[in-house]
Amino acid sequence: MKAPPFQYHRPQTREELGTLLSSLENAKILAGGQSLMPMMNLRVLAPDHLIDINRIPGLAGIRETPEGIEIGAMTRQADILSSDVVKARLPLLSRALEHVGHIQTRARGTIGGSCCHLDPSAEQPAMCAILDAEFIVTRPDGHRIVPASEWFEGLLQSALGEQEFLEAIRIKPWAKGHGYGFAEYARRHGDFAIAGGAALIEASKDGRITRAALLSFGIEASPRRLSDAEAALIDQPIGKLDLEPAVAAARALDAMEDVHVTPDYRRHLAGVLIRRALNEACTTLERQP
Amino acid sequence: MSGRFFGAAVTRVEDARLLTGTGHYVDDIELPGMLHAAFVRASFAHGRIRSIDKRDALAMPGVVAIYTMDDFADIAQGPMPPMAPHPLLKTPITYHPLSDTEVRHVGEAIAIVLADSRANAEDAAAAVILDVEYLPTVSDVALAHEANSPTAHSQHASNIAATMKAGFGDCARIFAKADHVLTEQFDIHRGGCHAMECRGVVANIDLLTDALTISTSSQSPYMVRRHLAAYLDRDENGIRVMTPDVGGGFGPKANVYAEEFAVALSTIKIRRPVKWIEDRQEHFVATTQQRGQIWSIDVAFDNNGRMRAIRGHCIHDNGAYAPYGLILPATAIASFPGPYALEALDLTVDVVLTNLVPTSPVRGACRPNVAFLLERLADRIARHLGMDRQDVRQRSFVKAEQMPYTTGLKARDGSPISYDSGDYTGALNLVLDKIAAKDFEARRKESKQRGKLRGLGIASCVEDTGIGPFEGASIRVTPAGKVIVATGASSQGQGHRTAFAQIAADALGVELEDVTVETADTAKFPLGISTIASRIAVTAGSSVQLAAHKVRAKAITFASHQLEVDEHDLELEGGAVRVKGIADMKIKLSEIARALAGSTGVPLPGNMEPDLAATAYFNSNALTFAYGANACEVEVDPETGDVRVVRYVVVHDCGKLINPLIVDGQIRGGVVHGIGNALFERMIYDEQGQPLTTTYGDYFLPMASEMPPIEIHHMETPSPRNPIGVKGAGEGGTIPAAACVISAVEDALGPNGPFIPVHPISPQQVVQWLKATR
User: Fold this and answer.
1) Interface touch A188/B764, C-beta < 8 Å
2) What ipTM did this prediction achieve?
3) How confident is the model over B257-289, as pLDDT tens digits?
4) Which of B119, B695, B703 sits opposite A2 (nearest CB)?
5) What whole-number distance in Å separates Cα of residue B454 and Cα of residue B433?
6) Structural domains in chain B plus CATH codes
7) CATH classification code of A62-171
């Protein structure tokens, strides 16, 4: 379990990083290394070049901006989990991060690394998908913004181009007091989940849903928004929600199979978990007086 | 017996070192000029190697040599000696140190690469090109058992390596007249073992004397020496084998492995030190695995629930080789009839070869399987008769007043097996009391209100421990007054240094810190067997006691001469022999040791033999039987199928406790092992014998986050069969645990749920079972 030979680069600036990305073939960016290094040691991946971006200043940190909360790509999961800003304004992200790995891996793992690696069961990209995050990408000629709806291109495949790197993730918080719910099922705490679900809701003063987002992850190659079910929730009264469209939508996904579980069981879980997430969102919603 | 230290919960003397990163493991060994080894391993399950092309690999950076079996032609050839020859195995089915041409499972070692670093060795191993003729593969033991199956070894006509039979009483008669007969099929999955430290070997050769020195992460260093000496046709004296700190054994490290031989052969060939450290990927495909078995069982019982007779047939998956002979299937047979007073038993075990990693004892060997069968049958009978589960057991168990109880089975030497002592019903009653079984329905109701299905499980077991013939010990008091205990029993983290020091310190009247325990270095103690089968407390522990008493007697004799006091008036206390009641009339052990070390021209008092030292071998001729009763509660999430063990209570009797802290640790770890077997660990292979779960992402080792609090209660029935009254404790936690957890799951699923004859179970299965009950 030793990685095959590779050349190690440690740029100190974005410019150096840009130069390396434009000049090197078969290069991989090393962020927190919690997926990349095991994959290299297992010889599943054999990049010729490893570009360690841990020394580049300003890639980590959580900032409130007029356009939303910006989380630098190199921000460690542990730092996001302990952020009061995230706790107060992106409570769903905080809630989900408790399920990401373990204390040790969260101290190293980064949100940007996870969002570029895109494991189908990963919580962080899934939360970006339900929160309609924007991915701020740096490229040789400047920046581009990729909306979450265009970020996921397939299994382990993001929209990041060869000469680009992820700078930050920007998320517009939902209204104060919004409801949020998260549910996943993994055999052991911290494992990649077999399936998961998340829900966000806002409601009017008379307790009717005004805005909703629903998402299943771990079921298909990428996290999946349940748009029709979201639409069906609008105007429904909290407490008398019809959960069935959400459950049916989750159960209708094209579920993956693996050595442990069948697609049927995964679909079954998708239904169970989206219901739990939505129920939880109703309980966390702060009712307007 | 008891004393200041024996029986006391003293903290382990090993811990400060092991917990602060200052332990010394095989991988910590660095020698000048040492090469690092990586193996070329089979990526296919069955095939014949036509040729091996190592030219490109040899040209790679840092590569010094690449050897196949042919390269050792001038040193030794042929299959490795069998560790445990058995008359039913006419030809031993052992590995070659490197494959001889036919490869029989994924992961089998074919060539060894020596390089200046492990990374370079791995790069080159990947560049060795094999030309292979693929052969039909058999990876499913039930298919392998069929007459027309492809064979795991192309030269064999059948995969059945041996058929073992055992039993007693007249089964036909009892089955003919029993009130009830039930037949059940059981499928018990093989799993891995996964000590925290993988295997590892460092071999070195003395260029002047040719003597070999081997450090290995092993439970059986003396077996490594014995079999390597036989294989190399050398005297044992020219081979020193030692075990530095070992990070867990649990059974698989009791085998003598092909890699140990291949590394030794490489060192002899290249005349430089060679290190090989097994990585976790290799561990998944090259270290022996657990006890996969399929059983068909008929059980005869009475209207009142008394279990009377069992007829069983087993298909035992031994994997591709039998490095440990038939020890594992033999343990299955020897585990009957457990705590049940059966009138008749008739067992047949077919030992079947497959193109999978070999199986060998893992914590409990096959005892957990048999506990699973017997306890599941007891639950099955209770359900069939509409009785309480504990009533079936109480009516069927061997009674305390029947001790010693002759089971009807015979030991390996032909002598009748007899349980020495114990109160199985008492243990079951105690555990039911401790878990408050009578209030369980209230807890079930409370869980139901939270949407969870709660179940109560029970399981008992009896465990043969302390198997002979011996582990010895020598004790020497140095002229500085320090006590050195040396034993051949190797240590893998069990706390031997503490436990043996407790025994010796009591006998010699010294403090724990005055005692140093040296384990498993063939240069320091001449003989040893293996640290397996919960035998070390009984065997080595008793020998330490006997040796300490010999040293004590010698010190008293000496002091009696010097002080001119009758021996009966002397005692050992505070590092000295002193006259009872006269504190300052004493002679220090250090003075005695110095005197007995001799001075030129000065005769020893009373013509005593020199050296304040003694060696003892306690002959453990009769097994001693530990036992336990477990109860646990699970909560099942009916939607996801998740099973969570929420309470676990153990009542365990391993005779006198040398150190309750150490025994509790053994039991707690053992229970976790069993919960892993019941709910988590699944080693999956495809039809081509490819392992599909070879990382901890796919292979679910249980983690602390999924484990319940484990409450332990001891009963202490001293064993009459050894001088310190102990029984083994290393496996008692594991043996009934899977049975106990599955019993609880079945109880949670309710009266309409299925009988569960398998483990591990998955949440997916639980959901399906629940669907079927509706």
Assistant:
1) no
2) 0.96
3) 999 999 999 999 999 999 999 999 999 999 999
4) B119
5) 18
6) 15-22+468-617 (3.30.365.10), 31-135+196-248+252-286 (3.90.1170.50), 293-466+623-773 (3.30.365.10)
7) 3.30.465.10
